C-alpha cells in the first residue's frame, strides 16, 4: 500500500516516513488530499511536478482501520503503521446542534496523557425568562503534547456540556472531574467550543440521514487521526466518514478487561461471563463515498469487512475501494455544487 | 404481554422497596456544638440548651429529648421557661424572641415554635433602645419583662407577645427618682439584670449596667427602693426569703443588700456586706451569683468567675461556698451558665445538684454527698473529650459480653456520685431496644470508648486506654485531679473534656471487635496493632512487641515520618476489662489503614500504605507479609513529612495559648454588627480573588504510578472457593488504593494442632481492575447470593450456615464501581458503575440486613453505600442494582462523610460536629428515635384558672389550629396560581411584542 498526498502545488508526493508525513500535514491548506494505492498498482511515474493538475477535482478520502478487537489492541495497519492511529473523533454530528461538538478521545492505553484541566465558570443560556447566567464547566488549560491538545478538537474555554452522554449541568467541578476520570478509557465529551468559527457546517441532507432510524450513539462521525487532524476537521467541507456504531459500543467495556494473575500462571484479561457477554463489535471505518456510486464500494457499504482481519486482504479491500475513480469524482463534484452532502 | 408482565414485576418490586427502605434522620447523640444558652424549668424538670447555630434542645429523664431549630441562623443567647407551663422563650442575637411549646400529639409531645416577636421602638429611636439584654418571665406566667440596652424595661403579654405599653418602665421614669448624690445617675446604661421578688410577685429589681439597682413595684408603677452600687453590675440575685439582694460586679466583688423600707431610709439600703472573694490583686468579674438557703445551717453561695486576673485569669471557675467548705471548680472550657436543682416537690427543698454548662460539656455536681462528686450524665456526654479518630459499630451483642463490658466499666466509674440523675422531666415512651448495640469510638489520645448505642441515649459503658502499653512523653504533673494542699484559690478540676493529646502517634485508626469471643483489635497512627482480650480480673502483663517489616527489602526507601512508639518493657498492671494479648508494630510505622480479625482462626490482618500482613495471635508469629509499595511512589516511600507534624504541634500550642487568653465573651451587640460587616467584606474579597484564579482540576487517567497506589484499603477473611469449585478453603483478600486485589489461600491445621503446627499462606490470585479506582470493600457472597456470615456467627447458631454448594461470588467495591466476579475462576459477571454515571464516588460501604415492615419473616441483604456527595444508596445483592438513594450529608461536610459508620441493620452514624453523632436509618424496621411525653404541671394559682386544663379543650384548640392551617394552605395555593397566571400573561405580552 502506498499513501500519497497532493501538495499545494498539486504535486503528488508519497507519505512513507515521519518527515514527509509532517510535511504533508503542515502544508495542507485547508484540505489534505490523500491517495491510496496498491503498491503493485502504483504508478511511480506520477510523482513530480504538475502530476496532478489534470485531475484537480479528484476526491480524496482517508481510509482507516480500527483495531480488530478480537485481539487486544493490534497495531493499526496502513502502510507505515506506527505513524497512524486514531486519537480522536467527532461523533454524532447529525444529531447535535451545530454549535456543539462531541469529541471522543482514544486513550488506548498509550503513554500520552489526556492532558487537560477543567474549571468552574458561568455561561449565558436562553431561558423562557430571558437570558440567564448559569454555572458551567469549562476547559481551563491544555497540557502541551497531551492527547487533548494534539487532537485540536478541544480548546481552552470550551464549555463542557456532557460527559459520555450525561449532562454536567448541576454537577460540581469535582463530580465532573471524577466522571471524566472514570470514563478516561473512552472519554466522550460534548463541548460548546469557545471559537465557533470552525464548526462543522452540516447540510440538510446530513440531518435527514441522521434521523434514519439510528440511535444517538450512531451517526456521522469525523475522525481525527493524527496530531494535526484538526486541520481536516476544521475544513469547510470535511470528508465524512460513516461509522457503523452498534449502540453499546460507545460505552466501551475496555475497563472490564481486568487483569487476573493466577498463582504461578500467566496474566490474562478477564472475559465477561457468557451470560451477558457481547463482543465489542468490529467498527467499520468506511470512506466517505456516495453509496450510489460504483460497485467497488459496495463491499464497504454493506459493512462486511473481511472477518479474517489479515492485513493483506484488508489492504486489498481498502485499496479497491479507495482507488480514485473519475466517476466518483464527477459525482462528488456535482454534490459539492448542490451544496449537499449525503451521508448514511 | 411480556411488557405487561414486566411492568407488574416492577411495581411489585417498588412495593417491596417501600416495605424495606425508608430514610430517617432519627436523632442526634452527644453534646451540642457551641452551646450558647442554658435554661431550666424546675416545674417541668427539663433542661434546655440553645446553640450558636440556632438550635434549641430540651432534655429531661433519660430518653426524653426534644429538638427545635430557629429559622434564623442566629445564636440563641437566652432561654427562659415560662413558669407553670410547657413552654419557653428564646432570645436570639438578632434580637428576636421566640415562643416554643411542647404540644401533645398522638400521645407524644413535640416541640413547636408558636410565635415570634421583635420589640419595636418609637420611630426614629436608635436600635439600642429595643435591643434586649435581660429577660424575666414573670411568675404569673402571663408577662415577660424585657430589659434593653437603652435602659428601658418593656412589658409584654405572653404567649401572644402583646406589648403592654402603659406598664413599660422607661429610663426617664427611673432616672428622675435616682438620688441626687448617685455618681452614675446621668448614665445608668443598659438593663443588666431583672429579678422578681420570690415572695412578692409585684416587686422586681432592675439592675443597670452602671451599678444602680431599682426595686420597682409593678402594681403601683413606681420605684420603691434604690440600691446605689457603684461598680459595673454583672448579675443580681434575690434571696428566697425576699429579704436580701445580692449583686455581683465586674471588679470581682459581690455585695449583699437589705431589702425593705421606703426610699430615704439610709441605714437599710446600705450594703450590708461586700467582699472580693479572691481579692487583694485585681480580679475578673463575677458573672453570676446565686445564694440558696438550707434548712439547717448556712446557705450555699455559688458564683462563677472572680479569679485573680493576673495569676488565674485564664481559669473557668465556679466557686461553691457552704459553711467551711470552699471549692473553686475548675473547668476545662468556658462557662456558659449554671443553675442549682433543689429537692422537694415544689423545688423548695435543699439544694441538691449544681448543673454547669460549659462550652464542651455538661457537668453535674452532687451537692449533698460528701466531697461533691460528679454525677455521671446519661446523655449529653462529650464524645470529643479527646478528638474522635474512628468509629466501629457492632450490632446485636450477646448478653454475656454486654454484662462483662458493663462490669468492667462500672469499676472505672467509682469516683462518680451514686445519686440518680436529678433531671427527671417527661416520660420516655419508647419501647425497649430490640437488641444490644455497641458503638466504639477511637480517640486521638489512644483510648477506645464503648457506648451503648441501643437506644435514644448514647451511654458511656467502658473506656479502654492503650497508652499504658507505651512510654509516652505525657507530663506526669498533668494529673487532672491533683490539688495541692493549702492552695488558694482551692481549685478542683472537674469535667472530662481534655482534647490535648501530647502524642498523636497513640491515635486509634481502626477497630475490630468480635462480639462472640470478646477479642478486640485496635490499630493506631504509628503502625501499632494491639490484640486484646476481655478479662474480668486485673492482671499484670509484659507486652512483647513483634515488629513486622512491610518493606520486604524494597530498595531506595527512606521513611521520614514519625518513629515507632516505645513499648514498656516492665510488666504493667491492667485493670479488669480488655487487656493486651499481643502487640505488632509495623515498620515503617505508618498509620494502619485496614484491619480485620478472624476470631475462629485466631488471625489478625492489617495493612498500611506499604503493604499488609497476617499475624497469628495464638502462636504469636507472622504468617504472611506482602509489600504493595510501588517503587516510584515517592510520597508513600517517605511518609508524612516532618513539616506537617510540626505544623500540627504548633497549632496545638497556639490553641492552648488561645485557651489561656480567652476573655469571656459578653454582649457586644454593636461590635458584632461591625464584625459581621467586616467578615462579609473579607469574604467578598476572597470570592473576588477566587474568580481571578479559578480552581482547576486535572483530567487524567489513573496510572500505576499515582501516589499511594499500594495503600491497603480493605482486608477480608473468607472461607470460600479460591482455587477449585469443589473445595472451600480459608482465604485472605486485600484491596489497594490502586485497584488491585490480592487473594491468599490460608492453610490452617486442625483444631487440636492449632497451637503448634504452622499456618501457611499462599498467593492464589491477583486482580488488577482496569479502572484502577481504590478498592473500598470486598465481600464474598454464598450460593444463595447472601454475604458470608461473620466468624463464629454460625458456631453460635446466630446465622444460617452459608450455602457451600452453589457457586460463590466475589463482590469488589471500588470507589467507582461495584463488580461481581465468579469464583473460583475470576470472571466478571455483573457490575454497576457509579462514578462514570453521576460523578460520585463510594466513600463507605457496608452489608446490612433490611427487614420488611409488613411481613415479619421477609428481609433482604443489601449494600449500604455512602458517596462523596453525601448521598446514601442501597444496592441490592447479589444483583448489584441501585434500589434507593437519599441525600444524607451535605457534600461539603467532608469530616461528616469521613466519620460515617453503618450498622448491620440498616442504620448509620456520622459526626455533625466534633461532639455530636447524627443517627440515621435506611430501614423501615430499625429506627431509634425519641418517643416521649411531657405534661404541663398542674398549677392552681388563680391567675391560670382561665387556661384550658382538660385535654378536650386543648384538642379543640388543636383542631382550630388545623383549620386555620388548612385555610392558609388554600390561600398559598391560590396565590401561587395567581402568580403563574401573571407570569403566563406576561409571557404572552412578551411574545406579542416579539
UniProtKB/TrEMBL annotation, chain A:
Compositional bias ranges of the Low complexity kind: 307-321
GO CC term, one of those recorded: apical plasma membrane
One Pfam family this sequence matches: PDZ
Domain PB1 as annotated: residue spans: 1-39
Residue stretches making up the PDZ domain: 102-195
Chain spans, region Disordered: 303-344
Gene Ontology biological-process entries: centrosome cycle; establishment or maintenance of cell polarity; regulation of cellular localization
SMART domains: PDZ (SM00228)
The protein, known as: Partitioning defective 6 homolog beta isoform X2
GN (gene name): pard6b
Automatic annotation (TrEMBL), chain B:
An annotated Gene Ontology molecular function: myosin II binding
Annotated spans, Disordered: 940-970
Subcellular location: Cytoplasm
Keywords (A to Z) from UniProt: Cell cycle, Coiled coil, Cytoplasm, Exocytosis, Phosphoprotein, Repeat, WD repeat
One Pfam family hit: WD40
Main subcellular location: cytoplasm
Signal peptide: none
Domain of life the protein comes from: Eukaryota
Coiled-coil region: 666-693
InterPro entries, sorted: Lethal2_giant, LLGL2, WD40/YVTN_repeat-like_dom_sf, WD40_repeat_dom_sf, WD40_rpt
GO biological process: cortical actin cytoskeleton organization; establishment of spindle orientation; exocytosis; Golgi to plasma membrane transport; regulation of establishment or maintenance of cell polarity; regulation of Notch signaling pathway
GO cellular component term, pick one: plasma membrane
Domain Lethal giant larvae homologue: 275-373
Renumbered ranges of WD repeats: 434-452
Record family assignment: Belongs to the WD repeat L(2)GL family.
Designated name of the protein: LLGL scribble cell polarity complex component 2
The species this protein was found in: Betta splendens (Siamese fighting fish)
Amino acid at each position: 500500500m502506498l499513501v500519497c498526498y497532493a501538495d499545494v502545488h498539486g504535486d503528488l508526493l508519497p507519505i512513507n516516513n515521519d518527515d514527509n508525513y509532517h510535511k504533508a500535514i503542515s502544508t495542507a491548506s485547508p484540505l489534505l488530499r490523500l491517495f491510496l494505492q496498491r503498491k503493485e498498482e502504483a504508478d511511480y511515474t506520477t510523482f513530480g511536478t504538475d502530476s496532478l493538475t489534470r485531475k484537480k477535482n479528484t476526491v480524496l478520502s482517508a481510509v482507516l482501520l480500527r483495531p480488530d478487537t478480537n485481539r487486544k489492541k493490534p497495531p493499526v495497519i496502513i502502510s507505515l503503521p506506527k505513524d497512524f492511529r486514531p486519537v480522536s473523533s467527532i461523533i454524532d454530528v447529525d444529531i447535535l446542534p451545530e454549535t456543539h461538538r462531541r469529541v471522543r478521545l482514544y486513550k488506548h492505553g498509550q503513554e500520552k496523557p489526556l492532558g487537560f484541566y477543567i474549571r468552574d465558570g458561568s455561561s449565558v443560556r436562553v431561558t423562557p425568562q430571558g437570558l440567564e447566567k448559569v454555572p458551567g464547566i469549562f476547559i481551563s488549560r491544555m497540557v502541551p503534547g497531551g492527547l487533548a491538545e494534539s487532537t485540536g478538537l478541544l480548546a481552552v474555554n470550551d464549555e463542557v456540556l456532557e460527559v459520555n452522554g450525561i449532562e454536567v449541568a448541576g454537577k460540581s467541578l469535582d463530580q465532573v472531574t471524577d466522571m471524566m476520570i472514570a470514563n478516561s478509557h473512552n472519554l466522550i465529551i460534548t463541548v460548546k467550543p469557545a471559537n465557533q468559527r470552525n464548526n462543522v457546517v452540516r447540510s440538510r441532507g446530513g440531518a435527514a440521514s441522521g434521523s434514519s432510524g439510528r440511535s444517538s450513539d450512531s451517526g456521522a462521525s469525523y475522525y481525527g487521526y493524527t496530531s494535526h487532524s484538526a486541520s481536516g476537521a476544521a475544513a469547510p467541507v470535511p470528508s465524512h466518514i460513516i461509522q457503523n456504531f452498534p449502540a453499546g459500543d460507545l460505552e466501551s467495556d475496555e475497563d472490564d478487561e481486568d487483569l487476573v494473575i493466577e498463582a504461578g500462571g500467566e496474566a490474562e484479561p478477564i472475559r465477561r461471563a457468557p451470560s451477558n457477554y457481547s463482543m465489542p463489535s468490529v467498527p467499520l471505518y468506511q470512506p466517505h463515498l456516495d453509496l450510489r456510486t460504483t460497485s467497488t464500494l459496495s463491499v464497504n457499504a454493506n459493512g462486511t469487512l473481511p472477518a479474517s482481519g489479515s492485513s493483506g486482504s484488508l489492504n486489498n479491500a481498502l485499496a479497491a475501494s479507495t482507488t480514485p475513480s473519475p466517476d466518483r469524482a464527477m459525482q462528488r463534484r456535482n454534490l459539492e455544487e448542490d451544496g449537499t452532502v449525503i451521508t448514511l | 404481554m411480556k411488557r405487561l408482565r414486566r411492568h407488574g414485576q416492577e411495581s411489585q418490586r417498588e412495593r417491596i422497596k417501600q416495605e424495606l427502605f425508608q430514610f430517617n434522620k432519627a436523632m442526634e447523640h452527644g453534646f451540642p456544638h457551641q452551646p450558647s444558652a442554658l435554661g431550666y424549668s424546675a416545674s417541668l424538670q427539663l433542661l434546655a440548651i440553645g446553640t450558636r447555630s440556632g438550635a434549641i434542645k430540651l432534655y429531661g429523664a433519660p430518653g426524653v429529648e426534644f429538638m427545635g431549630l430557629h429559622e434564623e441562623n442566629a445564636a440563641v443567647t437566652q432561654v427562659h421557661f415560662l413558669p407553670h407551663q410547657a413552654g419557653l422563650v428564646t432570645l436570639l442575637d438578632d434580637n428576636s424572641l421566640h415562643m416554643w411549646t411542647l404540644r401533645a400529639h398522638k400521645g407524644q409531645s413535640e416541640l413547636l415554635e408558636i410565635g415570634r416577636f421583635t420589640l419595636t421602638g418609637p420611630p426614629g429611636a436608635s436600635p439600642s433602645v429595643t435591643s434586649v439584654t435581660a429577660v424575666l418571665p414573670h411568675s404569673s406566667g402571663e408577662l415577660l419583662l424585657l430589659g434593653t440596652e437603652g435602659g428601658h424595661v418593656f412589658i409584654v403579654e405572653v404567649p401572644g407577645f402583646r406589648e403592654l405599653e402603659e406598664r413599660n418602665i422607661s429610663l426617664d421614669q427611673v432616672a428622675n427618682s435616682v438620688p441626687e448624690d448617685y455618681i452614675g445617675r446621668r448614665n445608668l446604661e443598659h438593663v443588666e439584670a431583672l429579678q422578681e421578688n420570690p415572695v412578692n410577685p409585684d416587686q422586681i429589681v432592675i439592675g443597670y449596667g452602671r451599678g444602680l439597682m431599682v426595686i420597682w413595684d409593678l402594681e403601683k408603677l413606681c420605684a420603691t427602693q434604690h440600691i446605689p452600687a457603684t461598680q459595673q453590675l454583672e448579675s443580681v440575685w434575690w434571696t428566697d426569703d425576699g429579704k436580701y439582694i445580692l449583686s455581683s460586679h465586674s471588679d470581682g466583688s459581690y455585695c449583699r443588700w437589705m431589702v425593705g423600707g421606703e426610699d430615704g431610709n439610709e441605714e437599710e439600703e446600705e450594703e450590708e456586706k461586700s467582699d472580693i472573694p479572691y481579692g487583694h490583686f485585681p480580679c475578673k468579674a463575677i458573672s453570676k451569683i446565686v445564694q440558696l438557703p438550707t434548712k439547717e445551717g448556712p446557705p450555699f453561695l455559688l458564683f462563677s468567675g472572680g479569679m485573680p486576673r493576673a495569676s488565674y485569669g485564664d481559669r473557668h471557675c465556679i466557686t461553691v461556698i457552704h459553711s467551711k467548705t470552699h471549692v473553686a471548680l475548675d473547668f476545662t472550657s468556658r462557662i456558659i451558665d449554671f443553675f442549682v436543682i433543689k429537692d422537694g416537690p415544689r423545688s423548695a427543698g435543699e439544694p441538691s445538684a449544681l448543673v454547669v454548662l460549659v462550652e464542651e460539656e455538661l457537668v453535674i455536681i452532687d451537692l449533698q454527698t460528701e466531697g461533691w462528686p460528679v454525677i455521671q450524665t446519661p446523655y449529653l456526654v462529650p464524645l470529643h473529650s479527646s478528638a474522635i479518630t474512628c468509629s466501629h459499630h457492632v450490632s446485636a451483642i450477646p448478653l454475656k459480653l454486654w454484662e462483662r463490658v458493663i462490669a468492667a466499666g462500672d469499676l472505672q466509674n467509682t469516683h462518680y456520685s451514686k445519686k440518680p440523675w436529678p433531671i427527671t422531666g417527661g416520660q420516655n415512651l419508647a419501647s425497649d431496644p430490640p437488641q444490644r448495640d455497641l458503638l466504639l469510638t477511637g480517640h486521638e489520645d489512644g483510648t477506645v470508648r464503648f457506648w451503648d448505642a441501643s437506644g435514644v441515649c448514647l451511654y458511656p459503658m467502658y473506656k479502654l486506654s492503650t497508652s499504658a502499653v507505651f512510654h509516652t512523653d505525657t507530663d506526669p504533673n498533668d494529673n487532672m485531679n491533683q490539688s495541692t494542699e493549702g492552695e488558694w484559690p482551692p481549685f478542683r478540676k472537674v469535667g472530662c473534656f481534655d482534647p490535648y493529646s501530647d502524642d498523636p502517634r497513640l491515635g486509634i485508626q481502626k477497630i475490630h471487635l468480635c462480639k462472640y469471643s470478646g477479642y478486640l483489635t485496635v490499630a493506631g497512627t504509628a503502625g501499632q496493632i494491639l490484640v486484646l482480650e476481655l478479662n474480668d480480673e486485673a492482671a499484670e502483663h509484659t507486652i512483647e512487641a513483634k515488629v513486622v517489616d512491610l518493606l520486604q527489602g524494597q530498595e531506595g526507601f527512606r521513611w521520614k515520618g514519625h518513629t515507632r512508639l516505645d513499648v514498656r518493657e516492665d510488666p504493667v498492671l491492667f485493670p479488669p476489662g480488655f487487656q493486651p494479648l499481643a502487640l505488632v508494630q509495623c515498620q515503617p510505622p505508618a498509620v494502619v489503614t485496614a484491619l480485620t480479625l478472624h476470631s475462629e482462626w485466631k488471625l489478625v490482618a492489617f495493612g498500611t500504605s506499604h503493604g499488609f500482613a497476617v499475624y497469628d495471635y495464638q502462636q504469636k508469629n507472622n504468617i504472611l507479609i506482602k509489600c504493595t509499595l510501588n517503587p516510584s511512589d515517592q510520597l508513600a516511600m517517605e511518609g508524612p513529612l516532618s513539616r506537617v507534624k510540626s505544623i500540627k504541634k504548633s497549632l496545638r500550642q497556639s490553641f492552648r495559648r488561645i485557651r489561656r487568653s480567652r476573655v469571656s465573651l459578653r454582649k457586644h451587640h454593636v461590635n458584632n454588627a461591625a464584625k459581621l460587616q467586616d467578615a462579609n467584606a473579607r469574604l467578598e474579597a476572597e470570592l473576588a480573588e477566587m474568580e481571578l484564579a479559578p480552581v482547576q482540576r486535572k483530567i487524567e487517567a489513573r496510572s500505576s504510578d499515582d501516589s499511594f497506589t499500594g495503600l491497603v484499603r480493605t482486608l477480608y477473611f473468607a472461607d470460600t472457593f479460591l482455587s477449585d469449585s469443589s473445595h472451600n478453603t480459608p482465604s485472605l483478600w486485600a484491596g489497594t488504593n490502586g485497584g488491585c486485589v490480592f487473594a491468599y489461600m490460608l492453610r490452617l491445621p486442625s483444631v487440636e494442632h492449632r497451637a503448634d503446627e504452622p499456618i501457611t499462606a499462599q498467593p492464589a490470585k491477583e486482580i488488577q481492575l482496569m479502572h484502577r479506582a481504590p478498592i473500598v470493600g470486598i465481600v464474598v457472597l454464598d450460593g444463595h447470593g447472601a454475604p458470608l456470615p461473620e466468624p463464629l456467627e454460625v458456631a453460635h447458631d446466630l446465622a444460617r450456615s452459608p450455602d457451600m454448594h452453589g457457586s460463590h461470588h466475589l463482590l469488589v467495591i471500588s470507589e467507582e464501581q461495584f463488580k461481581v466476579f465468579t469464583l473460583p475462576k475470576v470472571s466478571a459477571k455483573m457490575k454497576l458503575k457509579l462514578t462514570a454515571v453521576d460523578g460520585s464516588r463510594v466513600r463507605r460501604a457496608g452489608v446490612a440486613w433490611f427487614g420488611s415492615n409488613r411481613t415479619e419473616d421477609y428481609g433482604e441483604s443489601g449494600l449500604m453505600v455512602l458517596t462523596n456527595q453525601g448521598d446514601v444508596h442501597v444496592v441490592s445483592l447479589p444483583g448489584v442494582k441501585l434500589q434507593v438513594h437519599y441525600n444524607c450529608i451535605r457534600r461539603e461536610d467532608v469530616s461528616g462523610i469521613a466519620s460515617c459508620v453503618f450498622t448491620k441493620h440498616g442504620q448509620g452514624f456520622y459526626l455533625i460536629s466534633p461532639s455530636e453523632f447524627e443517627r440515621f436509618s435506611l430501614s423501615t424496621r430499625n429506627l431509634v428515635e425519641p418517643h416521649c411525653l411531657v405534661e404541663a404541671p398542674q398549677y392552681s394559682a388563680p391567675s391560670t384558672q382561665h387556661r384550658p386544663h382538660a385535654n378536650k379543650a386543648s384538642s379543640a384548640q388543636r383542631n382550630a389550629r388545623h383549620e386555620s392551617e388548612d385555610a392558609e394552605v388554600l390561600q398559598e395555593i391560590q396565590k401561587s396560581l395567581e402568580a403563574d397566571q401573571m407570569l403566563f400573561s406576561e409571557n404572552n405580552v412578551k411574545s406579542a411584542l416579539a
